[in-house]
Amino acid sequence: MSYPTVMVLSEKGEELDRVVGYYRAPEFMSQVEDYLAGRNTLASMVAEEPAKKDSAGFVYRLADRFADHGLFDDARKRFLIFVALDPKNDSGRADDALYRLARMARKEHDYATDRRYAQMILDRYPDSDMMRSAFLELGQGYRKDGHLARARTIFLDYAKRFPDDEDAPWAREQADSLALQIAHRPGA
Fold first, then answer.
1. How many CA atoms lie within 13 Å of 10's alpha carbon, on the beta-carbon side?
2. Residues 6 or more apart from 99 whose CB is under 8 A from it?
3. pLDDT digit of tens for each residue in the chain (188 aa)?
4. Which CATH architecture has domain 98-188?
5. Distances (CA, A) of 150 to 78, 102, 113, 170, 173
6. Which SUPFAM superfamilies does the UniProt record give (predicted)?
7. CA neighbor of 138 nearest in space, from 114, 159, 157, 162
8. Residues near 119 by Cβ (< 8 Å), separated by ≥ 6?
9. pTM score, two decimals?
10. Quick one: which of 70, 79, 75 has its CA closest to 97?
């Protein structure tokens, strides 16, 4: 589901776990060695879950691991538990969890849910490092759901609010493209 993904296999060819994303060699080797020894695997974390169900950090890592394995229903459940455990974003990851939930919903074409999670970031954590990403995600959710005028307004607002942001040109391009689509709609 992500690039790169390295599957760590047992001698019998059974998957022990996955290393997802880029890591420096020492961190990569440490993860592989842990997996070969049966430590920090998804299976070992699931076994630990009953004892650590109230640990926000553990629940976040478990949700992340489920997502890495493409087990989105399990990931979604844990991300929601995590957000409930950390409503004030003390960890700095509640906004990340909501963003992951939004992206999962968009990939599943559930655009209303995508927008709901993106809006939650904007409402709850306006100073978050995920605020701008959530802003753009909200626009994407409206665009994908066919609410072109609403999406265009969001992209224009983004470009106006953050003119020096690296995503501002992209937001303006989205708004321009949407203006053309709106103009060429039947009855426009």
1. 7
2. 117, 118, 121, 130, 133, 134, 137
3. 567 889 989 889 988 888 888 889 999 999 889 898 988 899 999 999 999 999 999 999 999 999 988 899 999 999 999 999 999 999 999 999 999 999 999 999 999 999 999 999 999 999 999 999 999 999 999 999 999 999 999 999 999 999 999 999 999 999 999 999 999 987 65
4. Alpha Horseshoe (1.25)
5. 31, 18, 16, 17, 15
6. TPR-like
7. 114
8. 134, 138
9. 0.86
10. 79
Instruction: Please name the residue ranges forming H helices in the chain.
Output: 25-36, 42-52, 56-68, 72-85, 94-107, 111-124, 131-144, 148-161, 168-183
Cβ contacts of residue 34 below 8 Å, gap of 6+? 40, 41
Which tokens is 34 given? 């842990």
Question: Could you tell me the two tokens for 179?
Answer: 């203006």
The structure tokens listed for 169 are 């040109």
CA–CA distance, 22 with 93 (Å, rounded to integer): 20
| Phi and psi angles of residue 167, each rounded to the nearest 5 degrees, phi first | -90, -5
> Domain ranges in the chain?
98-188
Contact yes or no for 32/20 (Cβ under 8 A) = no
**How many whole angstroms separate alpha carbon 81 and alpha carbon 187?**
46
Q: Distance between alpha carbon 47 and the CA centroid of its chain, in Å?
A: 25
- What letter does residue 132 receive in the DSSP assignment? H
Q: Is 23 left (phi over 0), alpha (psi -120 to 50) or beta?
A: beta
Angle, vertex CA 166, rays to CA 162 and CA 169, nearest 5: 80
